[in-house]
Every structure is written in C-alpha cells, then in structure tokens.
Design brief:
single chain, 8 strands, 8 helices, two-stranded antiparallel sheet
Length: 239
C-alpha cells in the first residue's frame, strides 16, 4: 500500500507533519531533566506508544516515520512505524541541557538560576529578557534559539522532501514546544500542554514555506484509559 497524500486544501502543494512526543519514562515521572540523556520507556510509555500507533495506523498512511535516536523516542517510533508499515528514520534529538541533565528540575533551577530566569519552563514570561533565549546552558548545552533553529531547519527539510504527503516525526517535549512557537505571532507567549504521545500537527506549504499549526497536544487516543491518561501530565517540565 502506497503512502496516502496529506488531506485538506492544497494537499498537493503542502506537507502534513505529525509530530509525536515520545512515551513516558521513569525520569518523566520523577521530574528529572532528561535532555540528551537516554532513559528508555517505562511500561506506561510502551502502552502509550501502542495506543498512539494504533490510532495513526487507522488514519492516512504516512510516507515515513522520523525519530530521534534517543531510546525513548526511537522505541516509540519503532512501534508506530511497524503499525503503519513504513520505514523509521533517525532524526530530531532533544535539547542538550548541559550539566543540568540528570538533575531533578528543582535542583537544576537551584544550580543554574540564570538559565531559567524569566522562563516558566519553556514559556517566555512577561517582562523577561528576550536575549536570555540566546544563553547557552553550562556544560555544552544549547540555547533556546539554537534549539529552535535546529528543529525548524529539520522540519523544513523533510517537508520539502515529502510535498503532498503525510509524515510522522517522533521527538521530545522541548523540541516540540519550539516547533509550536514558530507559527506564533511575533513576541507572543502562548502556554502549551504537550503530554507524552500527544499529536502536534503542522501543515507546511511547499510554495511559500508557511507553517500552520493545525492541532497541538492531542491525546484523544488516551481518553477513557485512566492509567495511561493520568500517568504523566506532560506540562513540559519533563523535557
């Protein structure tokens, strides 16, 4: 069965990119800064991945599944790709959090308050210094703007390679939040909720390159399953 073209107006000139946050890990539950550290899915995370894979397999078939090579994303993507019958390609990693990786969030803020000043997790708060988005985290970590540029460049690249098609990208909380910021009006500050295995759907024009965020934080596939729905709130603090 060949990949199904992306649906909607102008489908032949745009790409539908479904960005999925990986399933839950034990570090999510314990509120530990993961960054590019490599914990695997816990049991709830594997069940979440199976449920979201089942949902995606019933929708328009993607041309490919792209995934971060970190275990939590790669395992989620492998389950989705198998259910959809398409290849899984390594791709978009989480933000590098420098020396803060492996610390609990409260400890990370205490250790490096300047790195978090003006931010509510990843939301730029009123009155904060926009230049703080250029501040690299200690220990080789990325700045928020470096992360944003990396994520946007990647999505633009695969959008050009898959015009008229649907693709799935399995990534991480901080990366997805930065992708969601891209179509926002300048200087806006929108609080978003990106739970584990949520679907975040972008349409990217193959003519103008314009992005449209069509859905964000969609976890309809977890509804009715209290264990999976409540296992982790996914408010961005686990990124």
């Amino acid at each position: 069965m060949s990949p199904t073209p992306a649906q909607g107006q102008g489908e032949e000139l745009s790409t539908e990119v479904v960005v999925v946050r990986h399933g839950e890990t034990a570090w999510n539950v314990s509120r530990i800064v993961q960054g590019q550290m490599d914990p695997e899915l816990n049991e709830a995370g594997r069940q979440q991945a199976v449920v979201v894979a089942r949902r995606l397999s019933r929708e328009a078939k993607p041309a490919a599944v792209y995934s971060s090579d970190l275990k939590r994303a790669a395992e989620t993507a492998e389950i989705i790709a198998k259910a959809c019958g398409v290849p899984n390609v390594s791709a978009l990693r989480e933000r590098h959090m420098g020396y803060l990786q492996g610390l609990k969030w409260d400890d990370a803020v205490a250790k490096s308050p300047d790195s978090f000043r003006g931010f509510d997790i990843f939301k730029l708060t009123e009155g904060s210094d926009p230049d703080s988005r250029n501040q690299e985290l200690p220990g080789g970590g990325e700045s928020m703007n470096q992360l944003k540029e990396r994520c946007i460049s990647f999505l633009n690249k695969i959008a050009q390679e898959h015009i008229g098609e649907r693709v799935v990208v399995v990534s991480h909380g901080a990366s997805i939040l930065e992708l969601c910021r891209h179509p926002d009006p300048p200087n806006s500050s929108i609080r978003r909720h990106i739970p584990n295995t949520s679907l975040n759907v972008f349409r990217i024009s193959g003519v103008t390159g314009q992005w449209t965020l069509e859905r964000c934080g969609d976890v309809g596939h977890l509804k009715g399953n209290e264990f999976l729905e409540n296992s982790f709130g996914g408010d961005g603090a686990s990124a």
